[in-house]
Amino acid sequence: MARHTVGLVGGGQVARAHVIGFGNIPLFYGPERTADVVMVAEATDDLASTSAKRFGIPRWTSDWHALVGDPRVEIVDVLTPTYLHKEPAIEAMEKGKAVICEKPLAAKESDAREMYEVARRTGARTLVGFNYRRVPAVTLAKRMIEDGKVGKVQHVRSHFMEDWGGPGFPLTWRFRSSQAGAGALADLGSHSLDMVRYLAGEPTEVCGIAANFVPTRSLPGQSERLPSDVDDVSVVMLRVAGGAVAEVSASWVSPGRKVQLDFEVQGSEGTLYFTMERPNELNYYSARDPKGEQGFRQVYFGPAHQYGSSLIFGTPTMGTGYVDSMVNQMNDFLGCVEAGQECSPSFADGWRVSRLISAILESSSKKSWVSVG
Q1: Among residues 85, 57, 82, 80, which one has the least CA distance to residue 70?
Q2: Alpha-carbon torsion 185, 188, 189, 194, what sign?
């Protein structure tokens, strides 16, 4: 039996998702592997103790250095605002810990690169929280592409649209470029950029528009409005190694869209379409079908697919979603730690997405195509 210990640096809403992910591994996959969250660090004693009580974590601290240095913590999970990712992640890797970090990896491309280089030098096992890769329909799409079901990939599009970021949402670190790096492009678009990379390959050039529609926001509980200098909507064209073209868009001001992460992969012989609004379905069109039988068909996720053994009932369409992706992600990472293997998406992937975000912002500013070196 493999038993792991985890310490959380950050105790907010995303921490809850990670605690659920770790805690449900035995229920999904059996008792042979467990991960106990044994400590949480927050900015103040009050925040730390509140998080510990909320999540049932036995120990807490307001000093993340103490958590990172604690020999009882094997895996450090960094869940702070983006601009605070670098220091605890690097210190943890230097101390020989495995490290999970939420996306995007850093607010600055240079910081993300430094984190990746430390991971490479130390040999640390790392993971970036692009959890949607672990939605079963997404892994099925990846396999079908690799098996040639759509032929040669020619065109990929991925969008991530939500509607919570309108003028009434208060000013937080997410709306300050110095702390977030970018707005919807970083928070939501990073998932779509990773999806393009995962399904189609590495982008080599980008051309993007980053638009701000809410230039001022009020601080929580206050009426005075202060500058918000990040993109609320971003639209990107990409050229991908191997010849495919791609388009990515991200918005948190799209009325009616809640968690619309989708993608469509169009190849020379077929098309795949997925949306997180219907996470148990993958739509597939094959140009190889007889003319009289062509049309999109729905493939339902079930026991025959990767992660199918985790279903409560062994029946297709019984239901999988965000929580399942978290459990799958954490279980896969622990397997890599046990095997001494690099996990994907690693800090290398996180840096490459940060490099794309930086290039897109440069492209928007210059109003031109930018190469991704």
Answers
A1: 57
A2: positive
Condensed to tens digits (0 to 9), the pLDDT of residues 280-334 reads 999 999 999 999 999 999 999 998 899 988 887 778 877 788 999 999 999 999 9
Please answer whether residues 256 and 115 qualify as being in contact, where contact means their C-beta atoms are separated by less than 8 angstroms: no
CA atoms within 13 A on the CB side of 92: 30
What Rg do the C-alpha atoms of the chain give, in angstroms?
Answer: 21
Task: Tell which residue, 137, 123, 89, 129, has the closest CA to residue 299.
Answer: 137
**279 Cβ contact list (under 8 Å, min separation 6):** 135, 137, 301, 320, 321, 322
Strand 216-218 relative to strand 225-227: parallel, antiparallel, unpaired?
A: antiparallel
Residues 290 and 322 reside in one and the same domain? yes
**Measuring CA to CA, which residue among 104, 274, 265 is closest to residue 191?**
104
Task: Give the whole-angstrom CA distance, residue 141 versus residue 150.
Answer: 10
Q: Look at residues 73, 100, 131 and tell me which one is the last residue of a structural domain.
A: 131
What is the pLDDT of the chain when averaged over all its residues? 96
- Clarify whether residues 92 and 157 are in a common domain: no
pTM, to two decimals: 0.96
Helix (H, G, I), strand (E, B) or coil at 78: strand
Does residue 172 sit in the same domain as residue 73? no
Tokens for 4? Answer: 């792991």
- φ/ψ region of 243 (left if φ > 0, alpha if ψ in -120 to 50, else beta) reads left
Domain check: are 11 and 147 in the same one? no
Displacement of CA 331 from its chain's centroid (Å): 16
**Residue 72's closest CA among 43, 45, 39?**
39
Tokens, residue 15 = 């921490």
Phi, psi of 262, rounded to the nearest 5 degrees: -135, 170
Rounded Cα distance, 333 and 329, in Å: 6
Question: Does the pLDDT at position 68 exceed 90?
Answer: yes
Are 126 and 93 in contact, with CB atoms under 8 Å apart?
yes
Residue 333: CB atoms within 10 Å: 25
Q: Is residue 274 part of a domain?
A: yes
CATH label of the domain that carries residue 294: 3.30.360.10
Report the alpha-carbon distance of residue 194 to residue 348 in Å, rounded.
Answer: 12
Q: How many domains would you assign to the chain?
A: 2
Rounded distance between C-alpha atoms, residue 356 and residue 238, angstroms: 10
Domain stops at, among 107, 131, 155: 131
